[in-house]
Design goal:
The chain is α/β, with parallel strands linked by helices. It folds into four domains: 21-94, no CATH class; 99-225, von Willebrand factor, type A domain (Rossmann fold, 3-Layer(aba) Sandwich), CATH 3.40.50.410; 234-338, Immunoglobulin-like; 342-466, Rossmann fold, CATH 3.40.50.880. Helices cover 25% and strands 30% of the residues. It has helices at 3-10, 34-55, 62-84, 126-144, 174-183, 207-216, 353-363, 400-403, 426-438, and strands at residues 18-27, 87-94, 99-104, 146-153, 156-159, 190-197, 220-225, 234-241, 245-247, 252-261, 267-274, 277-288, 296-302, 309-318, 330-338, 342-348, 368-375, 381-384, 408-411, 443-446. The strands form five sheets. A five-stranded mixed sheet has the order 5-4-3-6-7. The termini are far apart.
Length: 479
Amino acid sequence: MNILTWIAGLFGMRGSDIAGIRHVSLRLPSGSALPAILAGVILVGGLIAIVSYVRTTEPIRRRKRLVFACVRLLVYLLLAAFLSGLVLDVELATAEKPRALVLVDNTLSMTAQTSGQAGGQAPVSRMEHVRDTLRRSLGDLQRKRSVRLRLLDGATIREADLAELEATATRTDIPSALNAVLRDGTAAGLSEIVLFTDGRNTVAANYKTASVALRERGVRLYPLIVGEARDFKDVGIGAVRTAPYCRAFDRIVIAYTIHHQECAGARAKVEVFDADKPERILANAEHVLTASPAGQHGVLALDPPVRSGVVRLVVRVSGVAEDMVEGNNQATLHTLIVNEPIKVLYVDSFPRPEFRHVKMSLGQDPNIALTALNRMPGGSWLLQGPSLLENPEKGFPVEIGELLKYDVLVLGSISHGYFSADDRFEERKLNNIARFVSGRGGGLIVLGGVRSYGHGQYQGSPLEPLFPFELLEPGKEPF
């Protein structure tokens, strides 16, 4: 540290390496009358200093009297400068430090334990080893470099400090992250990149292209490998999914995928439990791991917990002793337990045997609340069963809100034109059915009959995209 850097630090300019002084100037505020006052004060101060020097009668040596006169003159000059608002401008030249970027890979494999550090310390995770290394060396590096610390997050990078270095990513894409450094301007003025990684759980991509692009920009890449040469073994569970809600009388079906590295032949156990009651295992299964790049898929069916509302379920894989990473061994999902019957709206065009059989079959199930609407000759509607409709005598509901009160809609042998006595609301009702299925996720069952499908003139209607087959003209299909 030179004297200029030390002086700059006194004025709050810390962290800068001052190389020299470029320019020094004095200036007064523009439009001020103070320069004349300053000149007068200087003149008066000079005269007083001279007179005091000549007429001083105290027994003081001549040299000391001269010193006192100069001090008085300096005091007057400083006072005049203060009163006049005189400004001293000093332009400093700073020595630019080389810029360095420290990237830390945050895949879950970085939580694997490494052997103890020097001195016989207990084993630590790879991320803890990186954190400890940076804690000891980052200060020295910052004295020579302008250092920024970043954490890999998938294919991008984000700001982080030492306390935020945590391994949370399932997989990272190091080449894409390096290319992102080039694209977003981070590489501007950068001299080097230090990359901490264990080389695991990273996307297999072309590292050479990214490193060549960095070298062309004058950026040197220093990859530092963390971990040991022994085989990396890991078992994790992912792609866990289930239905967003489940009836209390139904079963919850959970699909999952087991991924592993170098664990083929091992036996893994998958368990599902309620997060609020982890001691109770709701379902389990065992798998013999195979060398499948796509992982092993499995399905578990279980009875829902005996309560309503949102339930948090945990799917966990265990039983593999060689597993080095525990952070990806379980996944959490949520589902809504609905303790009420399935509400079904059944609409048919006229009394027929099929209507009676369907009504009897659904009506006998205690878990189904059936509302049946039957179009009678003459245009009237017959209501059977409990109704959630405001005006069931008018037939099929016009408003989407009434239709959304039901979970399933069953259409019998009813044609395009049977939804209203007049055609004013016909298209609106059909659009509501399409929204009920595609937007809300309601169930739709369309029964066969002489007024169904193509015979019901649904070609080109909002319902046609809902059918899993092509609607043909009447006479060209079975119904």
